[in-house]
Design brief:
Distance between the termini: 30 Å
Largest sheet: 8 strands, antiparallel
Shape: globular
Number of strands: 18
CATH topology of the domain at 16-188: Uridine Diphospho-n-acetylenolpyruvylglucosamine Reductase, domain 3
Length: 483
């Protein structure tokens, strides 16, 4: 097993016992994997999930990697370089923020939901309002130790023996292996984030403004460190522009959206705002964006009775998982004569110059709103030509600007229609516009189309090399067939 190139505990910001515990876990993981039945597929034993695919029933043994949690050590940047951290692959972003923020650091991209793990964000992609300047989480990974399908632990980095695994690991969803630990870049944090909510009367005008912000990282003379947007309807759309700050910017105290107030509603009523860095990073988690309204959590009377520490995405996810298992509300709707509903929970990446076209189509054809917008572009590198697609399983081109469009709800299945028809129409429109969709939720592609869109020619030889006995399901089996 090749060693990672990390700082010693003495040079970093971590107790020595954590480093030793981590090394012991690395020594034990191959034995734990070897103890699993060799003739059966393997899955990751994990208490929480942010996937919206209904997994097929399986008796596959679960591999417990819970020892790989937490920040092992942090090394401040030297000679102008970035600070870095060695972190366990099963560390949630909530834990990362809790451990790093007191030292004045955060990951370059912190996905919106607390229980997303760093390994999950790298193998399944992640995005947030810093992605217009910092790209995707895997772009800040310097190297990672991965447990592969043949039971070996290898160190994958941009160069060297396992560079093929490093390039194809993003968007592989655990079909090539599991990240045990990762060395990631960090950026300095400030105590607060100051916000400006800018309204536009069309999505086209909003996307034109996005182009300006992505090009200059400024707006109206102010620096922009974060940008995302919400579309409430064809003539009501907002960009939220954020920047790190040491001050409350004239407010008496930072705003609090972890209790009675709902963040996304504030966008319509406030032009400026200030949140603590912690609350800004989790501003969307408290109400699962706006999806908490489906559980009544935004009704004032209910919200007063709902404990604030249970206003969080993983609680709502458990309610959804319970409904998926027992179909209680589906039976109630049927007794009321309501039509069956199709789940439409997706994030799609659309080229910026086609985003308005997609959103206009979506608002016209799919009765779901609001819609989330998050600009993104791959991080520029001095030696990479424009147009290069360095991550073959999610082939975004370097130098191309994109917008993530997120929509999470359900629609009634009309008479004569079938479950999945709306999602298939969205897939077709996304492909027509040159975009891709994230694979955390339902997908309906045939295998040939899927392989063409998600790097099958690059994926197949890496799958054969690192999982020759097929211990992990293939990406298509996971993403489309839900195995």
């Amino acid at each position: 097993m090749a060693p990672l190139h990390v700082a010693s505990a003495a040079a970093g910001l971590a107790p020595l016992h954590r480093v030793r515990e981590h090394e012991r876990a690395l020594e034990q993981v191959t034995r734990a994997y070897a103890a699993l039945p060799p003739d059966r597929p393997v899955r990751l034993a994990k208490r929480t999930s942010n996937l919206f695919r209904t997994r097929s029933a399986t008796d596959a043994p679960g591999l417990d990697l819970s020892a790989f949690r937490g920040v092992v050590e942090v090394r401040p940047g030297l000679d102008g370089g970035p600070a870095t951290a060695l972190v366990g692959g099963l560390t949630t972003y909530e834990q990362l923020v809790d451990e790093l923020l007191p030292h004045g650091y955060v990951p370059l991209v912190v996905p919106q939901l607390r229980t997303i793990t760093i390994g999950g964000a790298v193998t399944g992609l992640g995005i947030e309002a810093s992605s217009f300047r910092n790209g995707l989480p895997h772009e800040s990974v310097l190297e990672m130790r991965i447990l592969t399908g043949d039971g070996e632990v290898v160190t994958a980095s941009p160069d060297g023996e396992h560079a093929d695994l490093f390039r194809t690991f993003p968007n592989s969803y655990g079909s090539l292996g599991y990240a045990l630990d990762l060395v990631i870049e960090l950026e300095p944090a400030r105590p607060y984030v100051a916000l400006r909510h800018v309204r536009f009367d069309s999505v086209g005008r909003l996307t034109a403004a996005v182009g300006d912000v992505m090009a200059s990282q400024t707006w109206d003379g102010d620096r922009v460190d974060f940008v995302d947007g919400v579309v409430f309807g064809p003539t009501e759309a907002y960009l939220t522009l954020g920047r790190w700050t040491d001050h409350l910017e004239g407010q008496a105290r930072p705003s609090d959206y972890t209790g009675g107030q709902v963040f996304y509603r504030s966008i319509q009523h406030r032009r400026t705002d200030v949140l603590t860095a912690h609350d800004y990073l989790w501003r969307w988690d408290t109400d699962w964006f706006w999806c908490s309204r489906a559980f009544g959590a935004q009704i004032p009377t209910v919200r007063r009775l709902w404990p604030s520490h249970l206003l969080r995405s993983d609680v709502y996810w458990k309610i959804v998982a319970f409904e998926n298992r027992h179909r209680v509300m589906a039976r109630v709707d049927r007794l009321r004569g309501q039509p069956r509903r199709e789940r439409v929970v997706q994030d799609v990446e659309i080229p910026l110059d086609r985003t308005a076209e997609f959103v206009d189509w979506f608002l016209r054809e799919v009765p779901i709103e609001p819609v989330w917008l998050c600009p993104i572009q791959l991080r520029p590198t001095p030696d990479s030509p424009p147009g290069e697609a360095p991550w073959p399983l999610y082939p975004m081109a370097r130098g191309e600007r994109y917008v993530n469009v997120g929509f999470w709800s359900s629609v009634p299945i009309e008479p004569g229609a079938h479950d999945g028809d709306v999602n298939r129409s969205i897939e077709a429109e996304v492909t027509r516009l040159g975009g891709h969709k994230s694979l955390y939720s339902d997908a309906y592609y045939d295998e040939a189309t899927f392989n063409a869109l998600y790097g099958g020619t690059a994926y197949d030889p890496v799958k054969r090399r690192y999982d020759p006995r097929g211990r992990f399901p293939t990406l298509y089996e996971k993403a489309v067939q839900a195995r």
